[in-house]
Amino acid sequence: MKKLSEFQLIDQLKRFQGRSPRVIKGIGDDAAVLELDARRYQLFTTDMIVEGVHFLKGAAPRAIGHKALACNISDIAAMGGVPSFAVVSIGIPRGLSAGYVQRIYAGMSALAKKFGVSIVGGDTVKSDRLVINIALLGEVEKKHLVLRSGARPGDRIFVTGPLGGSLKSGRHLAFIPRVREARFLVKNFKPTSMLDISDGLAGDLGHILKAGNVGAVIDADRVPLNQGADFAAALADGEDFELLFSLPSEKARKLIQCGHQRSGFRFCEIGEIIGSPKKLFVRDVDGRRRMIEPKGFTHF
Ligand code: ADP
Ligand code: MG
């Protein structure tokens, strides 16, 4: 069988998706967007984490539980919404104690409490290795919904925090999903596009470029880096879970003027959307542009 990338495979699966008139956005964004009532959309997302892929066998069970829910909440944040209800399925290998599973749930429920999520069900099965899948509902006011597809030439590109080295540092297990930042943004600035960085800046910005049929220039020296990470790591490392978003230049100016003293958040401008479809450039300190592949980390 020909080896497909994760995204090529998902593209092929698109033809199986349902066509209910209540589906506003199906496959292809951070969460599905469904008609809810006159004022709000329902958001619906799922993410699975697998031992040996998304965490190592020796990881602390509370941290595993935290991560399993946090990556789902992050996808709701990326739509501009707030999370609400979760169901949790867990595949448990032989020999894992009930106490261990309870510690996973303790990590999960501490985060659930913080973000107003109620765990309301799930499934429990035997498995060769530990795997946790969560499906999460959320909601967003119609006027506050942000898709990946709205970036326009001239828009400025921002991230909500430093990038790179998430896996090496263990931050991928402990990150706090950016719901508060997202809510602040949709209420006050209305980004034209937004997603959470799960596969690295280059790859995830690539999704925004593809969805909006636009290009981008990133200023290498403006990308905020985590301690121990370099620019290459920011481009390619997965699981930073910061939000990446675009704003029209006028609003970008206002956001910067507002500053993090007043907003309480750290928004960093890192580049600009341009017209050339799906082309990604990096501008070095000396002003030279080079084109790079809009590809990041793939778990596949
Ligand atoms: P994220 O990293 O934001 O969770 P993914 O890269 O996992 O997003 O998925 C991209 C899009 O493809 C999402 O809209 C997701 O719902 C959809 N998707 C992923 N895997 C499948 C699948 N097996 N069947 C249907 N849709 C899928
Ligand atoms: Mg996402």
Plain-language structure description:
- With 300 residues, this protein is an alpha+beta fold.
- It has helices at residues 6-13, 61-77, 98-114, 166-169, 179-188, 201-212, 231-236, 249-263; strands at 23-25, 32-35, 40-50, 82-92, 118-126, 131-141, 156-159, 193-196, 215-219, 243-247, 268-274, 280-283, 289-292.
- The strands form two sheets. It has a seven-stranded mixed β-sheet with strand order 8-10-7-11-9-12-13. It has a six-stranded mixed β-sheet with strand order 1-2-3-6-4-5.
- A hairpin with a 6-residue loop joins β1 (23-25) and β2 (32-35).
- The longest helix is centred in the first third of the chain and has 17 residues, at 61-77.
- The protein binds adenosine-5'-diphosphate and magnesium ion (MG).
- The site of magnesium ion (MG) has 6 residues, from β8.
- Adenosine-5'-diphosphate binds at residues 10, 13, 27-30, 47, 75, 198.
